Amino acid sequence: MSNPENSSANLPFSSLVEDRLRTLPEEPGVYLMKSETGEVLYVGKSRSLKDRVRSYFQETRVRSTRIALLVSRVRDLEIIRTKTELDALILENTLIKRYRPRYNVLLRDDKTYPYLKFSWNDTYPRLTVTRRVRNDGSLYFGPYPNPSAMKDTLRLIRRTFPLATCTIPLDKPTLERPCVEYQIKRCLGPCVEGLTTETEYRQVAMGVRLFLQGKSNDLLYLLENEMKARAKNLEFEKAAAVRDRYRNVLQVLEKHTVSFPFHHPIDGLYLARSGTTAVMLVMHIRNGLLIGKEEVELKNTEEASDEELLVAFLEQFYGKESAFLPGEILLPVSLPEEDLMTLSWMSEKKGEDPVRIISPKRGDKKMILDLVRENAEEALNAREKRTLNSTEVLDEARSLLKRDRPPRLLCCVDISNTGDLLPVASLVTFQDGKPEKSLYRKFRIRYEKGQDDFKMLSEVMERQYRENPLPDLLVIDGGPLQLDACVRTLEEMGHDDARRRVVSLAKERTNKNKSERIFFPGQDTPLILPGHHPVTHLLVRLRDEAHRFAIKYHRTLREEYLTHSRLLHIPGVGPAREKKLLQSFGSVKNLMEATIEEIVKNAGLSVALATSIYHSLRDKQDAPPGSSS
């Protein structure tokens, strides 16, 4: 390897970078390449920071245009050491999500999908939904890219196999009588002594395990033997329940048309590219059955080879802490030995059998890849068609709204509150006609002096656009008064282009129909949008998404507020005194009906504190929700 100190004369990097290169450690870790302004341009990880980072600055290295441009802009390096390469991978993923570096290949649709968790090590196993896979002895099935399909599976299992679905501790029976789930034969009732045995319960649990593992023949054999055994012991009612279970399983198995002769988990990947658009499609094969697919769009893919994109995808997609690693990953191309060594952390993370990364050329695994390829190409075509349609719609929006250029970046602001309790606001962003959820923002309104939408909107304008530029088109959910309040606030902050970039959108309902109206600053007459025009659909979708996002945030805060005891909002009342008050009076309602003397006598509190509690519980504003964002 050439010495960076000798080759640096011909490279445009600073003396600060040279100093960093001289002191690089050979241990694993993460490196951040930064620009002159401190912007993080690239985040990477390596088992040897010294070798990896220096290789970027070697004069003899052949670089792609993207990497050459990256190196030319690097003015500083930051190094974070880790104990292992796996730790470096997890940290790298965290930093990529935080900084979204422009020279990293990014997963545009970065989601955490749900799994079914089966607590097999418990005395009475239960099935729950989780998004985190832990090494806790439980069995995890998934991921499920389609949550509705997972819910259907869960609903079928709970209808067929009577396992406990509650959160009551089941180490030993504690209740006197079972709940309604037992009465409708959806639970064996392990919470009540004498209703079932551990052996009977685990027999049903074994059926669930075999069902989720896709071992259909073993499951049918198990159910058939149990049915015969019940009938032989004259337990006809239990035999009939097992028979119904057997029929349900048969019915489900007949619906599975896509199956393969494999029992270990397999993921098939295919990369479809066209111009600057790149889509990675992942199909999950579990126990020979196709359980779902994931479609992930990649960003910053220019000048990157297919192998580079595959490696970057594997590291980000499977490097997440909650990611499930299959036994085999099928790729359309063979990766170089160097890249396979880079991905050796997968087997370390899996902790069991090693993860095999192969590129099959024939047989059933090649059939899986062919199926993935067909779906990937279809997904790419659909995205290109949507992009083309979006371009046309945005051009029509430019014409309809009399803009200088198509509004590629659209934002919408919406306020959500109930009276003056917990007011919140949302700001959603569409990029080229599609939601860009990484740019969504939510606000906990600080204004607390009544329900004043104008002041709330002005607050959002000030907090969001005090230092940020305005989008191509900012849509306010409301009428001309709300629009004027926002424009006035933006102009006071120095946004001279506010009148050209901000509009409001309002519904107008009559006895015969409803329409959408757009208000422009300084114009008394609104523009009535055509009912079935694509621009109308785009703006309504934008506003509805802002409304949905605001309502979701408001509900979350309201649920937190309602489940939090009203007593804890009273000065001088902490968890211990709250517990004592509830024990003394039984409920907050009973406490509200008590006199000051009764509070002093029953709870043993001072007259001053009892008086404060008495008046606070009767005050309509007893529990201010707070105003921090």
From TrEMBL:
Matching entries from Pfam families are given as: GIY-YIG, HHH_5, UvrC_RNaseH, UvrC_RNaseH_dom
* Alphabetized GO MF terms: DNA binding; excinuclease ABC activity
Keyword RNA-binding included in the entry's annotation:
no
Domain GIY-YIG: from-to ranges: 26-105
- The domain of life is Bacteria
Q: Which PROSITE patterns match?
A: GIY_YIG, UVR, UVRC
Q: Which residues form a coiled coil?
A: none
Q: How does it assemble?
A: Interacts with UvrB in an incision complex.
Say yes or no: keyword DNA damage present.
Answer: yes
Q: Which UniProt keywords apply?
A: Cytoplasm, DNA damage, DNA excision, DNA repair, Excision nuclease, SOS response
What is the designated name of this protein?
A: UvrABC system protein C
**Cross-referenced SUPFAM superfamilies:** C-terminal UvrC-binding domain of UvrB (SSF46600), GIY-YIG endonuclease (SSF82771), RuvA domain 2-like (SSF47781)
- Domain named UVR: residues: 217-252
Described by its record, this protein's role is as follows: The UvrABC repair system catalyzes the recognition and processing of DNA lesions. UvrC both incises the 5' and 3' sides of the lesion. The N-terminal half is responsible for the 3' incision and the C-terminal half is responsible for the 5' incision.
Record the organism.
Leptospirillum ferriphilum YSK
Domain UvrC family homology region profile residues, every copy = 278-485
Subcellular compartments: Cytoplasm
The entry assigns this protein to a family as follows: Belongs to the UvrC family.
Q: Name one GO biological process term.
A: nucleotide-excision repair
Principal location listed in the UniProt entry: cytoplasm
